[in-house]
Amino acid sequence: MGEAEWKANWDLFDRPPRKEKLPKGTVKHLMRAVGRHYTEAALDALLGDGDVSFDAYMEAMRKPCPEPECDMLAAVRAYDGKDSGLFQDAQYVRIIGDGEGAVPDSMLDDAKYMMNFDAKGLPIDEFIKAIEAPIESMQPTLDDILRLGS
Questions:
Q1: H-helix or E-strand containing 52?
Q2: pTM value?
Q3: More confident residue, 28 or 85
Q4: What is the dihedral of CA 123, 102, 132, 6, to 10 degrees?
Q5: Which of 36, 25, 26, 37 is nearest to 1 (CA)?
Q6: 121 beta partners
Q7: What residues contact residue 87 under an 8 Å CB cut-off, 6+ apart?
């Protein structure tokens, strides 16, 4: 994707009469929609405060995007006090628990099974992939509905 596409994407939001500025939140969504997966802090540093000008947006888009790290990954890494790169079941309990660390054993067992936890733990990136994976929907597709109607 190049500059022509970036400008076209901007133009979807900056409609006539053009202001040549967009709210920072809109620009964040626009950048993420084209695969720029910055953390909130990185986007804030890149875009500054207040509305974002078209020139500032284009300048930000021209910069190489660092290795994506989602906010979830940064949050989970905060639980890795030993910097092991592994996510332990006790850390899972603290994250999904009720603040008191109470998680039903069945829920923990299901998570361990589905995410392949072993005695050492689960690599953090695998944990993130597992919890961000889309869940299959039982909602019928348009084709399903049309088939039922015929």
A1: strand 52-53
A2: 0.46
A3: 28
A4: -110
A5: 36
A6: 118
A7: 76, 79, 80, 121, 122, 123, 124, 127
